Amino acid sequence: MSPLLLVLIPALGVLLLGSRSGRARAPALLLGVATLELLVALVIAFEASDTGYFHGYVMVDPTARLFATVIDLIFFGIAVYVWNRVREAPALETGIERFVALALVFLGAANLALFANHLLLIWILLELTTLTAAPLIVRPGVLSSRRASWHYFLFSSVGLGFALIGFFCLARSLDADGREATFFLNELAARVGGPADPWRKLGLALVFLGFGTKLGLAPMYSWLPEAYDEAPPATTALLAAVQFNCALVGLLRVVQVYRSADPELVSTQLVVIGLASMAVSTVSIIATRNIKRLIAYGSINHAGVIAIGLGVGKAASYGLLLYVVSNAFIKAILFLTVGKIKAHYHTKDTREISGLIKDLPYSGTFLMIGTFALLGFPPFGSFRGELLILSGLVGTGQVLVFAVFCALITISFVATGRTVFPMIWGEPKKKVTWPPQTALAAAPKMVFLAALVAMGIYMPSGVDLLFRQVATSLGGP
Amino acid sequence: MSPLLIALLGVLLIPLFVATWRTSLLGLSCQGLLIAWIAFRLEKPEMTLGTALTVLDLVVVRALAAPLALYLVRSAQNPPRRNDVIPPNMLSWSLVLGLVLLAFRLAAVVVPQDGDQQTLVAVSSSGLLLGLMVLSTQLNVFSQIVAVVRMENAIALFELGGQHHDVSPLVRVGQIAVLIISVLLYRWYLSTLNVEGSPSAPPSPEAPAL
Q1: Which of A288, A412, B113, B195 could form a disulfide with A282 if both were Cys (CB 3.0 to 4.6 A apart)?
Q2: Is there a contact between A161 and B208 if contact means CB atoms under 8 Å apart?
């Protein structure tokens, strides 16, 4: 099955939104498109053939197959959340078609970015996801959300600008070496070789800085807590769990090509960026009293762990993938749950929220489980992934990095628990009536939770094979 | 080509010292035109699809449409004439000169042979570093937008120096489309953030969010 269907289906959805009946049923249309996308992504994921389309600009490979499944599953969960939220709060029907149209363009671009085999095409598609996500951050009448949207757009433009210059520097490196420059990833892999010249060193540094900005890695991370905090929860989940993975796949593509030629250069840069991100996020986790910002800083922390895992490579590759996919599900669960909690308490201040497990049993339970997964507890995939990354650090002799990593993780663990656990198990501060939460509303989060546990305990052989194929492409065994 | 590049460097520097918002926009326009001129000096102009796209990108969008779109919004807001792009003090001016020297030093490292290529890399690096400097010193949305567009122009100049044979017209169209949508979004932010940010704007109650 052609991956172009993953673009055509959202495009058709946008066209249907143009009709009066389409606009009237916008949330259902979103849900319908998300369901179809998920089905197509699942079929593509388990088809054995890896082929190219459009003169090689689009390529099916294990990395694209795995991540398309993940982002389409999460998008499906977000679509269910939106559909249910509009049913609960009919005031949200006003302007919903704008959200749906932008979300569908975002989805099409995100899917194609995963399958793109050309660096400039990846850049264009990531820009397109940014251009569609930026207006989604804005909440009507809330100036701070408009400012957050501007900062997100500003940082993304600058970050992706750096990545683009990085691509041109990498092309110049080939020129300088007497080889024909190319942006096709499969051709790059065959042409890159020999010791790194200044163009390649500069190019890789700029690409890491650029993609690092999109991932919320230090030093250009300051847009992330603000955007995640101010955006509506559905948009936050889109940014944190869908766009994050698209940008990460862009970074993985570059690492897949350049790791064999410059293992030291790639590893050192990624480990340094990763540790710096973990350090700044740990300090911020200690200081914040805003639940959305707390999870946002947790995301920066996770991005740091991912950068370190990517830098370690080899034995850590499989663990890295487990961690990345777990991270996507954890963020989707937590941000969608926090949306419910904020709608209930009308605050994000952690000191004002208490006794969630009694007051909002579903949301309290999801916040509790999500926090345990965020902190890397067993039996979740994040625990297994983190363990494999740590053993990879020890295996490659990076003991100092291992020690700093463990210290930072421990501090962020204590700081997060100190803030979140009283919210869950403390005495309720107020009693309000709350409409009963339907099982359907909780279903997507249950699916994400099942996936998290499966990654920690047992994975079906087909899924495991896909993970291992991607790990091999990253230099894993 | 070097006189054109030096002229471009001048166009990058002058709006930093002549601090009016109109000079900033005129500077963006001149940058687009000079980069287009440089593009035609690098490749002989022939009537091909690639040439048409270059004209669309550099002349129509960067030199004309983007500055004009920002000008229309800005003039409707009736702002004060003066708009400091960098803090007006000796430290900032020294920093500007230091960044230009740093850009030329960097160019000498990556392109050891003296010539047009080295100057092109130096001028585009200067544009990029000066854009970053403006971004790091300014909180005002207009100045930030001008800084990002300056950086995008610097990237376009840098792109001209490479030989990219496998970039299809469709990809070029995609890049131009991204630029056009970005300019529309800049316009949107400039018109909405400046108005809503003013002290006279009444606070609005928060509606339920998705």
Answers
A1: A412
A2: no
Distance set, CA B75 to CA A142, A313, B5, B192 (Å) = 25, 54, 31, 14
pTM over 0.90: yes
Tell me the average pLDDT across A18-39. 94
Q: Which of A282, A240, A267 shows the shortest CA–CA distance to A401?
A: A267
**Is this complex's ipTM strictly greater than 0.95?**
no
Integer angstrom CA distances of residue A216 from A110, A248, B189: 18, 11, 22
Based on its alpha-carbon atoms, the radius of gyration of chain A, rounded to whole angstroms, reads: 21
Residues of B in contact with A158 (CB under 8 A): 132, 135, 148, 151
The single residue listed with the structure tokens 């916008």 is: A26
| Dihedral sign computed on CA atoms, order B47, B51, B56, B62 | negative
From B102's Cα to the closest Cα of chain A, the distance in A is: 15
d(CA A238, CA A30): 14
Q: Residue A56: phi, psi to the nearest 5?
A: 85, 0
Contact A141/B166, CB-based, under 8 Å?
A: no
Q: For position B200, what pLDDT does the model report?
A: 46
Asked if B50 has any chain A CB less than 8 Å from its own CB, the reply is no
The pLDDT tens digits for A109-162 are 999 999 999 999 999 999 999 999 999 999 988 899 999 999 999 999 999 999
CB B188 within 8 A of CB B157: no
Q: Could you tell me if B139 lies within 8 Å of chain A, comparing CB atoms? A: no
Residues of chain B with pLDDT under 70: 1, 45, 164-166, 194-206
Closest CA of chain A from B209, distance in Å: 5
Instruction: Pick the closest to residue A3 from A75, A111, A76 (CA basis).
Output: A111
Q: What percent of chain A has pLDDT over 90?
A: 75
Comparing CB atoms, the residue among B155, B178, B210 nearest residue A92 is B210
